[in-house]
């Protein structure tokens, strides 16, 4: 049998006996088999569950120096595949574990569920950061332990008094008993008996008082560590704020000196602003408020790993025989009038509906203007530093009247790119359109610095454009801690897209980092090409001082798991010293053999172009010692260009044409649909004070449901029963065959329920 050590006890070898204590203690150890790869399969590893963290090692001896991996249970999903398997998933990390028997598997599942429930409770009580805190100073300890010592001393005095009371009370009772045995008048005997009863009652009362004092001391001792953590946390917050203000003052002074010493800077900044009108970070001076934690890139680091040279197609036809056959292309294919690339240049938003679909329904083109409410930003932000964004009680003043589910649906604004990709005969050409689609989803964020509403657990959002645009979309909030949304899109034009996105975010005082976790899947019906990619990190700058602006940074790797084609896209972060165009995106599309076919270039807020590679060669070596590749390409073709914003967009939260319609009331939607959310509807109408009251009511209602669910889980686990927890309505958790991750996949039933108008399974969340 597999060895397990609850609380640090039990057998240590493979033949160790059953656990010596129930799996509810602080530490649980034992051997499990962990899936590594297809070559080695399951390997035996030593697992340790402690403080809400599950860590594993190759051997028990490694516990002293090397940890092979750790997963946080407070944000993890626990699932069981069969009688012996356990699947743990946390964002992009998944552990496939196997026990030797069903009994051992159940012990581990029970221990994991208890540890997860305890970790969630600790995090909700704001004590989840205690592991990262520094030990309190000696003065703090003395401040906290001094009253405890005094209480202990008083308790000892009370115990001494209790012993004396018991001793003298017993002597008094003996004396009264002797008096009762004497021959006294009847009245005297009754009085002595009454005194004896009162003495007994007095002793019982004094014992109860001593026990109550002892319970009070135990409670004070148990809370002393929490007081110590809270005090240390407050002091760290104050120090962090002081450092932030000091950095702001230094940067302000350095900027003033730079402006006085560089008279040509003002004109240069003005020219940049004029060429990029409406850009949130067009002037370089706006982005110079970055603190030391932000990663800067100079001009050489920002330079791509390749150089593109545009060739003359006619000249290439004459000299094509001299080029390397391994890297050359055929320019004739590039200049066909009826090619998919050529048609992409002539497309427009109105033409994207197609001949075979019904005319577009007339939808709203404006919403009420955003009110101009004043707000003391610092009074709210000073209490939020270092916290998870989803746990900060934000007023609607920081929001836009759309939920996160609607923002996720907004990625489909340029769905016609996927409609064109269906027509591509070459998988590498199709990859170009998929890459352009992945970049287009960021175009709406350039001005959108407001925060979408956090969806309630079980909240849904549908976008049924099957008759107009050929697709229908469904989103559902499938988890609250961590917040996760599942999305499924079906298009009758030949593609299906699905994803589960978990948003990890941190507020760092001056900027906000938003890290989407989870993979996006796209499959084309006719070819079977299956594409997978992940989103990059979004950063909102100048949270406290200056004008808010947003940037995207990181890399996207798009993989076609059928043909093994790849596209590497790089989102260049903004740099004050770079000469590149802001918000630049570059990439290369290559086949399974690594041969490059297309170069992608553009910006994530304006357009993306594609250039066919004719010839590739190695260029000169850069100053960092890296050899750059030189691609000789044909003239670029524009695959995607951003639609212009509607008139008066600056007063309508900078919503695009599609975004203006997302919250438009519709009939026959589910009662959990985001359009029916009252606080969001009040905010859109400009009634922000009422929206804030309604938002607090909904959040408190959700917290009450969560507390009830946690209590039921703890009760079930203590009784040894299985507790399923929250189950999504329209999605189910499965292990993805491509990525191996546990992901929510649409199981069907929503659109059938809509046709019947049978919403009996929907909870009352609003």
Word description of this protein:
Residues 1-23, 122-146, 261-294, 311-366 are annotated as: Disordered. Keywords: Coiled coil, Lipid transport, Lipid-binding, Membrane, Phosphoprotein, Transport. Pfam families: Oxysterol_BP, PH. InterPro entries: OSBP_sf, Oxysterol-bd, Oxysterol-bd_CS, PH-like_dom_sf, PH_domain. Among the domains are: 27-123, Pleckstrin-homology domain (PH domain)/Phosphotyrosine-binding domain (PTB) (PH-domain like, Roll), CATH 2.30.29; 385-662, Porin (Beta Barrel). It has 16 helices and 28 strands. The chain starts with a strand and ends in a 10-residue tail after the last helix. Strand 23 and strand 24 form a beta hairpin. With 766 residues, it is of the alpha+beta class. The strands form 4 sheets. Strands 1, 2, 3, 4, 5, 6, 7 and 8 form an 8-stranded antiparallel beta sheet that branches.
Mean pLDDT: 78
The helix tally amounts to 16
**Strands, count:** 28
Shape assignment: elongated
**Main sheet makeup:** 8 strands, antiparallel
In terms of DSSP E residues, the strand content is: 15-25%
Structural class from helices and strands? alpha+beta
Low-confidence stretches: 1-24, 126-136, 264-303, 315-333, 345-356
CATH topology of the domain at 385-662: Porin
Distance between the termini: 50 Å
Quaternary structure annotation: single chain
Helix content: 25-40%
Rg for CA atoms: 33 Å
Instruction: Report the top-level CATH class of the domain at 385-662.
Output: Mainly Beta
Write the CATH architecture name of the domain at 385-662.
Beta Barrel
């Amino acid at each position: 049998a597999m060895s397990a050590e609850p609380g640090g006890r039990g057998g240590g070898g493979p033949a160790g006996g059953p656990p010596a204590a129930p799996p509810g203690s602080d530490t649980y150890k034992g051997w499990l088999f962990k899936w590594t790869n297809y070559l080695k399969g399951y390997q035996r590893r030593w697992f340790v569950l402690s403080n809400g963290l599950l860590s594993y090692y190759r051997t028990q001896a490694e516990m002293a120096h090397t940890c092979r991996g750790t997963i946080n249970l407070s944000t993890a999903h626990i699932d069981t595949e069969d009688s012996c398997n356990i699947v743990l998933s946390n964002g992009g990390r998944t552990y496939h574990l196997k026990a030797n028997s069903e009994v051992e598997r159940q012990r581990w599942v029970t221990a994991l569920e208890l540890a997860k429930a305890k970790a969630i409770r600790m995090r909700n009580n704001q004590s989840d950061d205690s592991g990262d805190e520094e030990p309190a100073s000696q003065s703090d300890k003395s401040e906290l332990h001094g009253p405890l010592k005094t209480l202990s001393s008083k308790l000892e005095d009370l115990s001494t008094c209790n012993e004396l009371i018991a001793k003298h009370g017993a002597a008094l009772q003996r004396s009264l008993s002797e008096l009762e045995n004497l021959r006294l008048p009847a009245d005297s005997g009754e009085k002595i008996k009454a005194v004896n009863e009162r003495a007994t009652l007095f002793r019982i009362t004094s014992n109860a008082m001593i026990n109550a004092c002892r319970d009070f001391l135990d409670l004070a001792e148990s809370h002393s560590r929490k007081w110590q953590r809270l005090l240390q946390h407050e002091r760290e917050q104050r120090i962090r704020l002081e450092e932030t203000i000091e950095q702001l003052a230094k940067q302000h002074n350095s900027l003033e000196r730079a402006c006085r010493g560089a008279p040509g800077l003002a004109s240069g900044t003005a020219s940049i602003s004029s060429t990029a009108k409406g850009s949130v970070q067009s002037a370089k001076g706006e982005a110079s408020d970055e603190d030391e934690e932000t990663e800067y890139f100079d001009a050489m680091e920002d330079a791509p790993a390749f150089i593109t040279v545009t060739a003359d197609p006619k000249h290439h036809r004459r000299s094509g025989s001299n080029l390397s056959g391994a890297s050359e292309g055929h320019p004739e294919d590039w200049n066909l009038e009826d090619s998919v690339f050529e048609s992409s240049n002539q497309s427009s938003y109105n033409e994207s509906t197609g001949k075979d679909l019904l005319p577009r329904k007339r939808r709203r083109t404006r919403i009420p203007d955003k009110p101009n409410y004043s707000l003391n930003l610092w009074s709210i932000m000073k209490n939020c530093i270092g916290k998870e964004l989803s746990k900060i009680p934000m007023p609607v003043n920081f929001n836009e009247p759309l939920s996160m589910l609607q923002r996720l649906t907004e990625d489909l604004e340029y769905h016609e790119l996927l409609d064109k990709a269906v027509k591509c005969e070459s998988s590498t050409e199709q990859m170009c359109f998929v890459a352009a689609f992945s970049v287009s989803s960021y175009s709406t964020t350039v001005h959108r610095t407001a925060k979408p509403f956090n969806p309630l657990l079980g909240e849904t959002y549908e976008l049924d454009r099957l008759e107009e645009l050929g697709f229908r979309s469904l989103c559902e909030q499938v988890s609250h801690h961590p917040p996760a949304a599942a999305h499924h899109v079906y298009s009758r034009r030949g593609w299906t897209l699905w994803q589960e996105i978990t948003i990890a975010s941190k507020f760092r005082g001056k900027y906000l980092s938003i890290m989407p976790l989870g993979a996006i899947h796209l499959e084309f019906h006719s070819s079977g090409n299956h594409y997978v990619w992940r989103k990059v990190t979004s950063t909102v700058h100048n949270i406290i001082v200056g004008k808010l602006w947003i940037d995207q940074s990181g890399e996207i790797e798009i993989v076609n798991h059928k043909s093994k084609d790849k596209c590497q896209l790089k989102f260049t972060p903004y740099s004050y010293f770079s000469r590149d165009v802001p918000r630049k995106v570059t990439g290369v599309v290559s086949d399974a053999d690594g041969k490059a076919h297309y170069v992608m270039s553009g910006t994530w807020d304006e357009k993306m172009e594609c250039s066919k590679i004719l010839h590739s060669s190695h260029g000169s070596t850069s100053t960092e010692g890296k050899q750059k590749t030189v691609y000789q390409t044909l003239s670029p073709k524009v695959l995607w260009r951003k639609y212009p914003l509607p008139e008066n967009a600056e007063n309508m939260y900078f919503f695009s044409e599609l975004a203006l319609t997302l919250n438009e009331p519709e009939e026959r939607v589910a009662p959990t649909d985001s359009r029916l959310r009252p606080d969001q509807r009040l905010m859109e109408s400009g009634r922000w004070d009422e929206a804030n009251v309604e938002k607090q009511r909904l959040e408190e209602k959700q917290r009450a449901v969560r507390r009830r669910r946690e209590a039921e889980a703890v009760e079930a686990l203590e009784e040894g029963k299985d507790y399923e927890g929250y189950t999504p309505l329209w999605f189910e958790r499965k292990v993805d065959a491509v990525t191996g991750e546990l992901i929510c996949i649409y199981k069907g039933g929503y659109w059938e329920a809509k046709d019947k108008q049978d919403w009996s399974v929907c909870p009352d969340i609003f």
